[in-house]
Amino acid sequence: MLELPILIIGGTGKTGGRVNARLRARGIATRPVSRSTPTVFDWTQQETWRAALDGVSQAYVTYQPDLAVEGAAEAIAELSGLARDKGLERIVLLSGRGEPGAQAAEAALCASGVGWTIVRASWFNQNFSEGYLIDGVLAGEIALPAGAVVEPFVDADDIADVAAAALMDERHADKVYEVTGPHALTFAEAVAEIANATGRPIRYTQITPDAFAAGMHQAGVPEDLIALLNELFTVVLDGRNSEAANGVEQALGRPARSFSDYARATAAGGTWGA
Ligand SMILES: NC(=O)c1ccc[n+]([C@@H]2O[C@H](COP(=O)([O-])OP(=O)(O)OC[C@H]3O[C@@H](n4cnc5c(N)ncnc54)[C@H](OP(=O)(O)O)[C@@H]3O)[C@@H](O)[C@H]2O)c1
Predict the structure, then answer these.
(1) Ligand 1 lined by 46 (C-beta under 6 Å)
(2) pLDDT higher than threshold 70 for residue 2
(3) What is the mean predicted confidence (pLDDT) over 131-145?
(4) How confident is the model at residue 227 (pLDDT cuts 50, 70, 90)?
(5) Residue 70: is it exposed, middle or buried by C-beta count within 10 angstroms (0-12/13-18/19+)?
(6) Residue 238: is it exposed, middle or buried by C-beta count within 10 angstroms (0-12/13-18/19+)?
(7) Is residue 64 lining ligand 1, measured as CB closer than 6 Å?
(8) Index of the ligand 1 atom closest to the CA of residue 66
(9) pLDDT digits (tens, 9 = 90+) for 76-132
(10) Residue nearest to atom 13 of ligand 1 (CA)
(11) 209-218 and 223-231 helices, crossing angle to 10°
């Protein structure tokens, strides 16, 4: 009998794309979905969810835009219930550290009756190279409302390694892996590491939340995304997540990648210009 594929929600995203590549490399069938795939999956269109969940064994789930937004826990509860009814073995959920909304979503998954693994991540390194901070790196200045608080940035490759391992081995069932990098850095220190790796001057400027919101407004960023980012910087980045955690080591038996290694490899790959 043919193996059922593994569903990957957000299959072209920073972590979904990597999880997909890892499973495919192991010869495992996958169904990566998003708003632009042949089988459409849209978090805002619940009628698209059933077809995506048809005939799959498990799912890797990344929620959009963020589990911190209103309605996220309800959406995860609904999706998990559907997955349970369709006989999925397990959902591996990408979650965020220290976000009350994310913790409510985790609780909804755990209560749903479908098997679960939670990968609870700190801020991604790749926000600087594949996310909303890349423009600042390329322009030579990153301006954010983040001061002396340190964050143990985690590498999306580590997240994907943990998620793929969880999907391939049921020993990871019922586990919460709190995944971070090995060291915590301020945003200024992270930017300095990138400047060092690229050999170009890149400045970090601390600005007020109001100035941050005004700048994004001017750049045409949607208001709900501005509110979300401001909440992440002002509420979640208050020191509650400053300690590094050992979820990568627990799940994989090896240490997490460092921010310096990420910065060096990304600079060498040309993402931040020659
Ligand atoms: N970035 C961080 O530092 C951080 C830290 C902790 C947790 N997280 C969590 O990570 C999750 C995001 O994961 P990621 O960074 O791997 O993904 P990402 O790079 O933000 O992913 C974008 C993916 O989501 C799809 N997508 C966008 N809107 C969608 C929608 N309405 N319905 C269905 N698919 C949609 C995109 O494809 P289409 O455009 O084709 O739809 C693409 O496949 C969020 O839940 C966030 O809370 C992020």
Answers:
(1) no
(2) no
(3) 94
(4) confident
(5) exposed
(6) exposed
(7) yes
(8) 47
(9) 999 999 999 999 999 999 999 999 999 999 999 999 999 999 999 999 999 999 998
(10) 62
(11) 150
Six-digit token string for 212 = 């941050």
**23-82, pLDDT tens digit by residue?**
999 999 999 999 999 999 999 999 999 999 999 999 999 999 999 999 999 999 999 999
Q: Among 34, 118, 228, say which to mutate for ligand 1: greatest number of ligand atoms within 8 Å of CB.
A: 34
Paired tokens of 1: 């009998």
- Ligand 1 touching residue 32 (CB < 6 A): no
Share of the chain above pLDDT 90, in %: 86
List the residue whose alpha carbon is closest to atom 34 of ligand 1: 34
Is pLDDT of 194 > 90? yes
State the residue for tokens 């423009």. 135
From CA 147, how far away is CA 238, in angstroms rounded? 10
Q: Which residue owns the Cα nearest ligand 1 atom 37? A: 34
Which of the four pLDDT bands, split at 50, 70 and 90, describes residue 22?
very high
Burial 257-269 (b: 16+ CB within 10 A, else e): bbbbbbbbbbbee
Q: Where are the alpha helices (DSSP H) in the chain?
A: 16-25, 49-53, 72-85, 100-111, 134-139, 156-168, 187-198, 209-218, 223-231, 247-252, 259-268
Is 153 touching ligand 1 by the criterion CB < 6 Å?
A: no
The answer to whether 142 and 127 have CB atoms below 8 angstroms apart is no
CB of 89 shorter than 6 A to ligand 1: no
Tell me, in angstroms, the distance from the centre of ligand 1 to residue 231's CA: 17
CB hemisphere CA count around 114 (13 angstroms): 31
Is ligand 1 within 6 A of the CB of residue 117? no
